[in-house]
Description:
The strands form 4 sheets. The protein has an 8-stranded parallel barrel with strand order 1-4-8-11-12-13-14-15. Strands 6-5-7 form a 3-stranded antiparallel β-sheet, with helices on one face. A two-stranded antiparallel ribbon has the order 2-3. The chain is an alpha/beta fold. Helix content is 26%, strand content 13%. The chain has a domain at 7-80 and 156-353 and 366-390. The protein has 12 helices and 15 strands. It starts with 8 loop residues before the first strand and ends with a strand. It has helices at 37-43, 145-148, 158-175, 206-213, 225-248, 278-288, 313-318, 336-342, 372-375, 386-396, 406-413, 431-446; strands at 9-15, 54-55, 66-67, 69-75, 104-106, 126-128, 152-153, 188-193, 195-196, 201-202, 257-261, 294-300, 349-353, 401-403, 461-465.
Amino acid sequence: MSVLPYIDGVAFPVTWASIDSTTCTASTCTALTYSFTALENLLTNYISGGMYSTCGKALPGRGGGHLCIIDLDVRPVTNMSSNLDTPSYVFTTGWASASNPVDAVFCTSGNYNGSSYMLNAPPSNDYANVNGTCSGGSITPACYQQTVATGIPAIWETPYETAIHAFWTEFVSWASGNVLPTAPVSQIGYVRFGFSIGSEATINCTKYLEEALGNFHSTGTQATDSQMKAAWLGAYASAASNILAAVAAQPIRPPWVPMMTVNMGTSLPGTFGNTDPSWAIGEAQILLQNQPFGIGTQGLENGAPNLGPVASDLTAIANGISCNGSSIPCCSDNWCNTRSMVIGNVPVIELQDCNVSDSASTSATPPHCLDSVLAGTIPAGQDQVTLSQIFPLSSQHATTSAEIYYNDLLCAFDPGSTVLSGTTCGNVLNRLTYSAAYANAILALAAGQPSGTSTLIGNAQMIGNATLF
Length: 469
């Protein structure tokens, strides 16, 4: 792990389905069954005494290094295309006496098509449950639970909430050292509890979630955007209070911090611009009501103008007079407008780049969300300064935990790595130029610099990623 001297720790993705092996038929379920053995094995090398257990040796102010911080990113729903992270039993009629089983949605425009099981294909641009219909062969059969489970679940429905709350309670007990095998409790910095897709508070396929909320297939109608927001924030509040209660219930309160992320309402069919930044404000308010709780955002951006309502956080924040943070976003995911609410009021403020940077500016595929040339914030040919533009913005807005993509760390500190593609860090002739610029930007962020541009609040903690994503 060539980058370990330049980071304070590692962020491990953990999926619900990899731990929960509960099974259900149409009428009965086994007892809830969890196993943390596989997760424990993944962490072994980073636990005290392991070959990768020391971090930060090359960072300013870290002395000779320290035990690696281990942050856990608990994901209940897969980020894109097809859900593999929610256990399929959650969607059965046997779970939680579900006479109304959990709905899941599928949509082409949101890149969430799901996948087939035993030729039983999910619907296209619709919602379904195991009492509904899917497709396959020459007939239209009922949906298998394994097919429905590949969609985005309706996270506010009671059977889903019952299952995820039980899982979170068990995960908190394990991370607090009260479930075997023993977790590295003293090294855990925070546990980020995902809400809907990925580890983020992200909504996708909104039209069809609103149809599910309004019971559109039966006697209902499609719910409105405001009704969807109310259901979403209600489930978010329930999640936060459940997690905090589980932490408080431990015999000895663990030293780590629970965290959730905030995001805007997106792809809203009845809202002008299809985006409602006030969702992020509502989620932040919920976290403030459930302290101690960390807050995170996955969206620092400076990229192509055609990507969404905000292309560059640099220019959006500089031109803040044109936004208000409630109906017009002031930055990607509206992260900057939650900061004034939470600085000094939460234990951890996390911010992650929107994606791996496109420093070479040669990739033909989106998202280009970190490409300063495309953003128009630097002249052509100078994309190597991308990180030195966005990281000061992160420091200036009181970020205490900065998550960086692994390939950007390799570009900075191991540009010869065979893991890097030919374009991630510039072409072979230019790699040293890109590497030096990226390294300087990361070291400056670790020190909470540059100073003199605005008031800085604390230093940023560098968190790398133990897997390549």
